[in-house]
Amino acid sequence: MRVSDYIRDLLYKENCVILPGFGGFVVNYEGSKIDFNSNEMHPPKRLLAFNQKLTNNDGLLVNHIAKQENITYQEAEKKVASFVAEQMKMLDKGNKVTIDGIGSLKSIKSNIVFTPDRNINFNRDAYGLESFKFKIASDSISKTSLACFFIFSSIKLSK
């Protein structure tokens, strides 16, 4: 597997994945939403951001690669360093870097600007859920009923 595949895998489980010497991908939770202006309901999401100040190796990515590929920590570290060097080289040349299933990065005045892939939801609990449009029969009653249904359906009940 490629380093980008490992990053993507970890983003479904972790809130932050750091590429040592490059930056970190941070996941933020956003709850379900009802938009009564457009009559759309949106499932909960885990939105992705990038922070170029998170550069210290926390070992998460390197350890994950070492375990998955059954290689030493040092070999996995070299693999990540090589990936980071490739990305930095592309950015230094003024190119946009696209990481499949994650998003794209561009260097502007020594700042890395990240544009996430909006088609990816890193919330495993929302797997298969999509936004959808709905019709309202009677404004005041339906909005209240729909909001109550939505709130109660999003609560996880334990046995």
Describe the structure.
By secondary structure, the protein is of the alpha+beta class. Helices cover 34% and strands 26% of the residues. It has 4 helices and 9 strands; from the N terminus they run H-E-E-E-E-E-H-H-E-E-E-E-H. The strands form 3 sheets. A 3-stranded antiparallel β-sheet has the order 1-2-5. Strands 3-4-9 form a 3-stranded antiparallel β-sheet, with no helix packed on it. It is elongated, with a radius of gyration of 20 Å. The two termini are 39 Å apart.
Task: Please count the helical segments.
Answer: 4
Query: Residue-averaged pLDDT, rounded?
Result: 85
Estimate what percentage of residues fall within beta strands: 25-35%
* Spatial strand sequence of the major β-sheet: 1-2-5
Low-confidence stretches: none
**How many strands?**
9
Q: Could you spell the SSE succession in H and E letters? A: HEEEEEHHEEEEH
Which shape, going by the Cα principal axes?
elongated
